[in-house]
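Figure S7 source data.
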Amino acid sequence: MAEKEYKLKDLPGVGTTIAKKLEDAGFTDLMAIAITPPIELAEAIEVSENVARKIINAARRFLKLDFDTALAYEKKRKEIIKITTGSKNLDNLLGGGIETKAITEAFGAYGSGKTQIAHQLSVNVQLPLEEGGANGKAVYIDTEGTFRPERIKQIAIAKGLDAEKTLSNIFVARAFNSDHQILLLDKVKELLAKGEPIKLVVVDSLTSHFRAEYIGRGTLADRQQKLNRYMHLLARLAEQYNLAVYVTNQVMARPDILFGDPTQAIGGHIVGHASTYRLYLRKGKKNSRVAKLIDSPNLPDNETVFFITSYGVSDKEE
Ligand code: ADP
Ligand code: MG
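Tokens for the predicted magnesium ion complex:
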């Protein structure tokens, strides 16, 4: 019994509460979950269909990978590292920070802080494990031309780090179109193959090229298919090399929604389903930022507040 519970909770995104709901509903092993339609699982354990689909996909993925000894399997799970965002509030919202072997998507309007978090993570990933880092280097794929070395320096110096050294641990590439953006993942693999200890891959932004290139071109199917493939490449990279992937996403206006937030992430379901964690960012009162976790299987859909200051992402106002 204890062993079965351990297995369920080992699914990325399944904590005590959902594990119990699963068991109560008769889903006592991964196979039972893997063969259940999302809508049915969603009803049985009272989560959204999107969350159910993530759990099912994880179960399927685990089963395929599962011809491992239990020991190797346990080791794999223990490898996951959580990189601090610089804000305890934000870290807590994410269950400890930005996870390796996962894709974290931040979406929100212009100026909501997506790029700032990307800069902060590129510094923080370099910290030792005990300080919330991953003792690694960062890759920054910049599609909008908003990467700023000066900002990296500013954040590094505020943390008492050597600015030059911090900069030299970040590989930056400007992606000029969506094909180039895809190709750059091969370059990341080459760096890894050369032994570079890359622990964070930033794609800022994930969707701007895809969006621009496919505007007004009949159906969205081609774009979605390409984006879908790209997300899977990212997920594989994260899993294979135990690294964290942080992607940013724009929102588009939804004039048809009169109440609530009239915005929606680009790429819709495709990006949403492939992301392990989705963070919705917006400006709050008095220069604060509000982060909301969306559709997370293990964590409640919660909100928290943080600040962007001259010294970086923080819980405290400047
Ligand atoms: P997004 O990528 O979501 O469009 P950004 O991450 O670029 O948004 O956020 C930009 C905001 O971050 C600015 O409007 C400003 O409030 C804040 N910001 C950027 N740099 C600094 C800095 N050096 N000191 C303080 N705040 C900053
Ligand atoms: Mg930006």
